[in-house]
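hey m, so remember when u said the C-alpha cells were messed up on ur end? i reran from scratch. heres the input so u can diff it against urs
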Amino acid sequence: MAILNDNTILQYLDSLLKYNSFTKASEDLYISQPYLTQVVKKTEKHIGVKIIDRGNNQIRLTEAGRLYYKYLTENVEHTNNFINQLNEFTQKKNSVIKIGVLSTLGSFLLPQFLPKFIKNHPDVKIELEEASPEISVEKAIKGQINFYIGQTPATVRPQLECEVRGHEPYYFMIPKTSKYYHPDQKFVNIESVDIEKLLQEPLLLTCAGSAIRQQINFLTHKFKTNPIIVLESTNIETIASLSAKGIGSTIIPATVAMHLDEGEYNLCPLPQDILSLDYFLAYAKERNLSPNEKDMIETFKKINIIECTQKEGWPKFSELR
C-alpha cells in the first residue's frame, strides 16, 4: 500500500477527529473502516511515531501527531498557494470559472443565480464539473476548480470558506400504506402527527454518507429511534417516487417534493429547528479571489431559497406549521 498524499491524509485525520470514530469517519470519507485503519498504521510506520491515541474511548492526536498535523496543514497550504500562482501564467485570468456540483443539486440551484451572472459577465466562460461531493471538495482545496456548490455546510472541510444560503424546508412524506396517513389530504399540519412514531415506520432513505442521510441520522438520534430501513438509494428522487407508491415513508427536501407526481400520500412540513437544508458556495481559503469570482459569490448570496421552493398553488410553508 503506497503512502497517500498529504492532502488525503489530512482529510482522513480531520474526519477521525470530527467523528471520534473510525467507523463514522470511514462512512463520511466513502472508504471502508479497515482501509482507514490501515492508512493510519501505514502512516505511523512510515514516519516512525504514533500519531493517534485511542485511549478512554476518545480519538486524539498524540504530541507527535499534533506536530505532524501542523506539518500537513502547512504543506497543503503551501502547495495550494503554489498552484494558484502558477495559474496566473497558465491561463488568462478570470476568463474561466469552474464549478463543481452534484448533478441533482445543480439542476435546482444553478438556475437560481447562474443566468444572472452570465448576463452580467458574457466574457466569462463557465465550466461545470458534475461530480460527487468528495471529488469536488478535493478539487476545490487543490485549486483545480474555483467553487464547489454543496449542502449541509457543517460537513465542509476546514480548508474551505463557505457562503451559505438557506433554509430549504423538509417534508415528511407519508404514503397511503402508513397507518398515520390522512385520507383526502395533500398536506398535514405538524401538530396532527407524531414525529417520533413516524420515524419508527418503515423508511426509505438515501445511502449512508450522503448529506441528507447525515441530517436524518441526527433526527433519529434526537428522537432516540432505531429506523426500520426497507430500502436505500443514492438518488433522493428515486426514494421519493418509491415512497409515493407506498413502499415506505421518507423525508425529502421541498425541491424534490415540488416535482413529485400526484399520488395518495401526505406531505408534512418539518420545523426548521428540527430539520432544514442549507446550501453553500465553497472555495479554498488561501485563494485570492478575482473580481469576477467575488461577483459570483455576491450573486449566489441573493438567492431566496424559500421563494425557490414555493410551488404555485401550494400553501405557504409557514401556513402549514
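this time it looks ok to me. Residues 159 and 285 are 6 Å apart (CA to CA). if urs says something different then somethings off w ur setup not the seq
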